[in-house]
């Protein structure tokens, strides 16, 4: 009995050891392969990046094809006094673009604001082979996913020649390349927020976006023209931190705001005490 137990335990530990060693071997092989890719093709990896051009204008005279198959000038989305959310990608992308689209959709669903009302959304395909039919199908899916009324014109999906999309990508610093072996585009995951006049205001990175970050980025891009007074106050207390990848509390402004509130309360208290003391003296004089 004891011998069988020891033998079973030994066999169990041996099996676990073999599995662990096999998993470790797989990890080492994967790391080796990744290192080989980096070593063998550094130029390709350098082709995926974002070079921020904050404060610069994008070319508004570029022409694309809308999801309704009609030609449209990019500048037509910037004459409505609304900030614009710009997304570069392509509609038949097998993974990354959909993750970015889904992440933006989730954030927009939580926003109290609606696309087409307080802000505009524009997606431009970097794949010149894609047609307005594909763009229309993509638009339909995401407009329905957001589920807010009256936003049909709030998120437009554009297609067009490579020269146009490449010019726009270069203007915003969106670096990508086409992988012929995979028949896919390699590109970064980023959303760009622009001012109503077409200046680049903020880059939001990743595949998930918080409602707060999107709201503050839009408020910042609009220079306070959208949102409530409370939103503007919140923007005063937060600033964008590239290292954190989002908006964080700005301690200096919070302290200044706290000092101003404290001073205001003290002023009200002193005024009330002064008024009460003055009233008591007036009553005393009448009594005399």
Defining key terms:
two-stranded antiparallel sheet, five-stranded mixed sheet, 8 helices, Glutaredoxin, 13 strands, disordered N terminus, elongated, 288 residues, alpha+beta
Fold and architecture overview:
The chain is an alpha+beta fold and 288 residues long. The chain is 49% helix and 18% strand. The protein contains eight helices and 13 strands. The protein has a five-stranded mixed β-sheet with strand order 6-5-4-10-11, sandwiched between helices. The protein has a two-stranded antiparallel ribbon with strand order 1-7. β2 and β3 (71-73) form a beta hairpin. The chain is elongated and about 95 Å long. The N and C termini lie far apart (110 Å). Residues 1-40, 227-233 and 250-261 have low confidence and may be disordered.
Could you give the order of strands across the largest sheet? 6-5-4-10-11
- If helices are DSSP runs of H or I spanning 4 or more residues, what is the number of helices? 8
**CATH homologous superfamily (4th level) name of the largest domain:** Glutaredoxin
Strand content: 15-25%
Break the fold down into its secondary structure elements and pairings:
Elements: H1 2-40, H2 42-46, E1 49-50, E2 63-65, E3 71-73, E4 84-89, H3 96-110, E5 120-125, H4 132-146, E6 155-158, H5 162-172, E7 174-175, E8 177-179, E9 184-186, E10 190-194, E11 200-205, H6 211-221, H7 229-237, E12 238-241, E13 246-249, H8 251-287
Parallel strand pairs: 4-5, 5-6
Antiparallel strand pairs: 1-7, 2-3, 4-10, 8-9, 10-11, 12-13
Helix pairs in contact: 6-7
């Amino acid at each position: 009995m004891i011998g069988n137990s020891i033998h079973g335990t030994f066999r169990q530990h041996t099996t676990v050891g073999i599995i662990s060693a096999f998993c470790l071997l797989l990890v080492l092989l994967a790391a080796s392969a990744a290192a080989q890719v980096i070593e063998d093709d550094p130029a390709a990896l350098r082709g995926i990046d974002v070079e921020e051009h904050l404060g610069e204008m994008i070319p508004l005279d570029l022409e694309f094809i809308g999801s309704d198959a009609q030609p449209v000038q990019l500048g037509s989305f910037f004459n409505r006094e609304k900030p614009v959310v710009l997304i570069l990608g392509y509609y038949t992308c097998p993974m990354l673009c959909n993750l970015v689209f889904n992440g933006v959709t989730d954030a927009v669903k939580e926003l109290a604001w609606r696309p087409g009302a307080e802000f505009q959304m524009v997606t431009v395909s970097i794949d010149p082979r894609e047609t307005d039919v594909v763009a229309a199908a993509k638009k339909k899916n995401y407009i329905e996913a957001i589920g807010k009324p009256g936003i049909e014109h709030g998120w437009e999906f554009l297609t067009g020649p490579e020269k146009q999309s490449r010019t726009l990508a270069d203007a915003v610093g969106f670096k990508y390349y086409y992988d012929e072996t995979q028949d896919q585009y390699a590109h970064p995951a980023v959303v760009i927020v622009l001012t109503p006049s077409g200046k680049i205001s903020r880059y939001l990175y990743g595949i998930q976006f918080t409602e707060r970050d999107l709201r503050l980025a839009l408020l910042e891009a609009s220079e306070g023209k959208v949102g409530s007074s409370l939103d503007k106050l919140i923007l005063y207390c937060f600033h964008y931190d590239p290292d954190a990848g989002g908006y964080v509390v700005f301690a200096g402004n919070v302290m200044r705001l706290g000092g101003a509130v404290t001073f205001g309360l003290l002023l009200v208290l002193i005024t009330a005490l002064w008024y009460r003391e003055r009233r008591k003296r007036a009553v005393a004089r009448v009594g005399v």
